[in-house]
Write a structure and sequence with these properties.
This protein is 27% helix and 20% strand. It is α/β, with parallel strands linked by helices. It has three domains: 259 residues, Spore Coat Polysaccharide Biosynthesis Protein SpsA, Chain A, CATH 3.90.550.10; 72 residues, no CATH class; 32 residues, no CATH class. The strands form four sheets. It has a nine-stranded mixed beta sheet with strand order 3-2-1-4-10-6-11-9-13, with helices on both faces. A four-stranded mixed beta sheet has the order 14-15-17-16, with no helix packed on it. The chain has a two-stranded antiparallel sheet with strand order 5-12. The longest helix has 16 residues.
């Protein structure tokens, strides 16, 4: 049996951490699990007073406080090291703007047991993305027989860290291996995060060491994005549907060339197979967020001045299926970057992309105008 702790990370938002812990108190547990309420130093004691009042009947309750303010990055990294301080095999880490699904612990138990010795796995996500915030577009992972897929993108909205995997990351971080990292490999949006972010280093680590996070298709956490140090106002943009099952037996899969895998740009790693190309000769950039193309072939939604090898339509969802089913059209382009050609651009191409993201019968002039302005602004940025 794996020894597991739940770590909740708080600062000065009493109602937020109260909401999180309330969701933990009504979840289902099939073994003892400690609850660590870790609270950074603030100018009030409301969160500490609340933490001391919590009754936790599923294992030990530990309230951790600090004599001085650590800041979010140092606080989260400190929480990761509770794995060693309290000798846990794994910890479930939850910041205070998260709530959990009733069966989150069942998912955690099964995935920890399955992946705890897998050196290709950097961690396990409880959250699943439905929005690629790097591109400002919906994200739909292609479905398989498994209940999980893999992404080279670390998680902060509900995650599981296992001892060996965490220690490998922390050693990499302490040795400042990120200083020699090729910044062209990381999304520019992530690089723009300020120095208070710990997550951008964990993402860099995943890319640098070619490791992945395990993601559920149905989310076990959701994010309130409450107003606080990093948000000026409440935001429901990162809310996702929760898996409300309790006793599900998860179908888990190994990380191999048959897996559903996405890179740090939310691009399908294995799409090259359906393009009949080698993985080392094609760059996938359907979301259009990559800046550097170092491979001969490029598969993109952008209209560029390279030789067009083949085109596909944009009808099926997710868009990988348009390749799998060889859908005809002129919205997805496979380019040969060795040959520069002046291609005639379709000025209305962006309308097709806009209508693909929403229901076509909901299109209005105002929405089209908004999308056009936003699209122009994003491309100029």
């Amino acid at each position: 049996m794996n020894k597991i702790g739940i770590v909740t990370i708080g600062y000065n938002r009493k109602e937020s951490i109260k909401r999180l812990i309330s969701s933990l108190l009504v979840a289902t547990y099939t073994q003892d699990v400690d609850l660590i309420i870790s609270i950074d130093k603030s100018d009030n004691n409301q969160v500490v007073d609340y933490a001391n009042s919590v009754e936790w009947n599923y294992g030990k309750k530990i309230v951790k406080t600090f004599e001085e303010n650590l800041g979010l990055k140092k606080h989260v990294l400190t929480c990761g090291n509770y794995l060693n301080e309290f000798n846990y095999d794994a910890i479930i880490v939850l910041e205070d703007d998260i709530v959990v699904a009733p069966g989150f612990f069942n998912y955690a138990l099964q995935t920890i047991e399955y992946y705890k010795n897998n050196k290709n796995i950097a961690g396990i996500s409880l959250y699943t993305h439905t929005w690629n915030f790097l591109a400002g577009r919906p994200f739909i992972p292609i479905k398989s027989e498994s209940d999980v897929y893999f992404m080279q993108y670390a998680q902060s909205w509900g995650q599981i860290w296992m001892k060996n995997q965490w220690n490998d990351f922390y050693k990499w971080y302490e040795e400042k291996m990120f200083e020699n990292f090729d910044l062209n490999k990381i999304p520019s949006n992530v690089l723009e995060w300020d120095e208070k972010s710990w997550l951008k280093y964990h993402i860099q680590y995943c890319i640098d060491k070619n490791k992945y996070f395990v993601y559920p298709y149905l989310s076990l956490t959701t994010n309130f994005s409450d107003a606080g140090t990093h948000n000026s106002f409440n935001n429901t943009g990162m809310q996702v549907p929760l898996d409300m099952s309790i006793d599900k037996i998860y179908v888990l899969s190994d990380l191999d060339n048959k897996s559903i895998m996405y890179d740090s740009f939310f691009e399908n790693v294995n799409l090259y197979k359906f393009l009949n190309l080698d993985i080392n000769e094609v760059e996938i950039d359907l979301f259009g967020t990559k800046k550097i193309y170092n491979k001969r072939y490029l598969f993109s939604t952008k209209q560029l001045n390279y030789k067009i090898v083949k085109t596909y339509g944009l009808e099926l969802k997710p868009w990988e299926l348009n390749v799998c089913y060889n859908i005809k059209g002129n919205e997805l382009f496979l380019y040969d970057t060795n040959e520069i050609i002046q291609n005639k651009k379709n000025k209305k191409n962006w309308i097709k992309h806009f209508s693909y993201d929403i229901r076509g019968d909901l299109i209005s002039r105002k929405k089209v105008l908004f999308y056009a302005v936003n699209n122009i602004w994003r491309r100029r940025k």
